[in-house]
Amino acid sequence: MNNGAFKMETFHNEQVLSYLPGNDESKNLKKELEIMKNTKIEIPVIVGGKEYKTGKLKKCIIPHDKNHVLGYYHEATEELVELAIKTALEAKNKWESIHSEQRIAIFKRASYLAGSSWKAKLNASTMLCQSKTFFQAEIDASVELSDFYNINAYWLSQIYDHIPVQTIDSMNRIDYRPLEGFVYAVSPFNFTSIGANLVGAPAIAGNTVVWKPASSSVYSSYVVYKLLEEAGMPPGIISFIPGNANMISNVIINHKELNAINFTGSTKVFNNMWKEVGKNVDIYRNYPKLVGETGGKNFVLAHNSTDIKHLVANLIRGAFEYQGQKCSATSRAYIPSSIWPEVKELLVTDTKTIKMGDVEDFNTFMGAVIDKNAYDKIKSYIDYAKNSQDAEIICGGGCDDSIGYFIEPTIIVTKDIKFKTMMEEIFGPVLSIYIYEDGDYNNLLETLENISEYGLTGSIFAKDRYIIKEAEQKLVYSAGNFYINDKTTGAVVGQSPFGGSRNSGTNDKVGTMGNMLKWLNPRSIKESYNRISSYLYGNFHEDVDK
Ligand code: NAD
């Protein structure tokens, strides 16, 4: 048995590749897109490493070409959900008892594969299944996934390295146990890497996980599952159970051994899960940890000292990349009236040049929104603005679902600071703008800190250093990721730990030591060297002054 100490010393971000025409990564990706489009996949439920075909089939489609069926997935039955829990509990003992470097090695290999031979598969499935451009797929499915698996290994290793204070007469240790029961991971459609991390972070720490992927991204989630399998993940550590969310959650949240929920998705769904856990609090063996990263209504505040071209380019990237379906997407902006005419001119002119369409064309900037539900919801907000006296659509507004779920990049200007589209999460390519009088800047700053129920991301654009400093100080709880002269999106693992508070989540900052601590249940162990012969302490003695 080798007792040598093991520690991950460093973390480096994975490189984002260029995909220049005709280079290797471009060729590999195009080849993989062809293969995936022309092969009908059948995705099983996977429990304990075994594949189950329940016959309850659902389609995996391409959002920008909605009649193209990539394949089908089998929905989990109630019995399979119960089996997944049982399997997770049975597999846990062996998994938690192997030394940490064995688990870390699996995730380090998965990270390595994601950056090499599995890169094209991860990116192609994300492009087709979630309608991401090659660039958006690269920074998500391959690079961010790889970064998450690397950084989790690094932080876990740092945590294990921490030992308590020693004394002359005792040895003090911490045993970093995983959680006692199982973890339920529920992932959103919009980032392949988020699903990978929701299961990966607990699993690397020795937990076993039951994973319910989002129904519209089952395909790319399945590729992640197969990547982990290839990397050496033993059967039973992660069960893959796509299917009806209500049924699956109902079985899981009613289980005594549920020890954590690792969720990313909408505020409403997380709130409901929290309520259900609350109702069941008496049945659990441990208090389940609830980790949830939820909705956002992310803002840009422009000051009149800003660089206008820089502001406009960042508004467009922040609001319209990935069709505004990033949780951090810019969805409201506050622009001073003195610069508005110039901002408007440039913003509308540039937005009109955005190329929307099939993401297989590498010149496309925007694909389609994820599915019919999202399309209908986003369109209803646009229609609301069209019919309102208080708003004007200055760009876009067109929706067309004849081929795919396409929604034009849309800009709404309103005089009402609390206009519906300024307040509610739309999760689509819709930017709402409020024009303020320059003299009202200070009042606006006060208002912005509290106007939204969310607190995910926000930016100040200004050249004036005192303005920047004041905004940073006054907008303290309005965003968990606050940017200065940068767009509200694009947080990089390790550089801008991500997450927000208020209705945006529990702010457990993925990819940090704090997040890894969520998946551990530390046990302090004290061993005494001293032996005693009496219950009396040495400082108990007869009172000689009596
Ligand atoms: P969603 O809430 O509709 O779905 C998320 C997951 O919850 C899916 O797997 C879904 O099937 C599942 N779900 C739905 N109903 C459920 C139920 N009753 N019980 C248990 N699970 C249930 O979200 P989405 O549309 O997939 O993703 C978009 C949302 O996610 C947006 O609100 C976005 O802001 C948020 N998001 C937040 C972050 C963040 O870091 N804060 C990151 C990505 C996405």
Structure explained in plain terms:
The protein is α/β, with parallel strands linked by helices and 546 residues long. Helix content is 38%, strand content 21%. It has 16 helices and 23 strands. The strands form 7 sheets. The protein has a 7-stranded mixed sheet with strand order 14-17-18-13-12-20-21, with helices on both faces. A hairpin with a 2-residue loop joins β4 and β5. The chain is globular and about 85 Å long. The site of nicotinamide-adenine-dinucleotide (NAD) has 31 residues, from α8 and α9.
In the CATH hierarchy, the architecture of the largest domain is 3-Layer(aba) Sandwich
Tally of distinct domains: 2
* Strand content range: 15-25%
Task: Provide a count of the helices.
Answer: 16
Oligomeric form: single chain
Main sheet properties: 7 strands, mixed
What is the helix fraction of residues, given as a range? 25-40%
What's the alpha carbon Rg, rounded to whole Å? 26 Å
Shape: globular
How do the strands and helices of this protein lay out in sequence?
Elements lengths: L23 H14 L3 E3 L1 E3 L2 E3 L4 E6 L2 E10 L3 H20 L2 H15 L4 H12 L3 H28 L8 E9 L3 E5 L5 H13 L4 E4 L5 H14 L6 E3 L4 H9 L4 E7 L2 H13 L9 E5 L4 E5 L5 H13 L9 E7 L3 H13 L19 H15 L4 E5 L3 E2 L5 E2 L2 E5 L5 H4 L6 E7 L4 H10 L3 E2 L1 E5 L3 H10 L6 E4 L16 E2 L10 H5 L2 E9 L18
Parallel strand pairs: 1-5, 7-8, 7-10, 8-9, 10-11, 12-13, 12-20, 13-18, 17-18, 20-21
Antiparallel strand pairs: 2-3, 4-5, 6-23, 14-17, 15-16, 19-22
Helix pairs in contact: 1-4, 2-8, 3-5, 3-7, 4-5, 4-7, 5-6, 10-11
The structure holds nicotinamide-adenine-dinucleotide.
The site of nicotinamide-adenine-dinucleotide (NAD) has 31 residues, from helix 8 and helix 9.
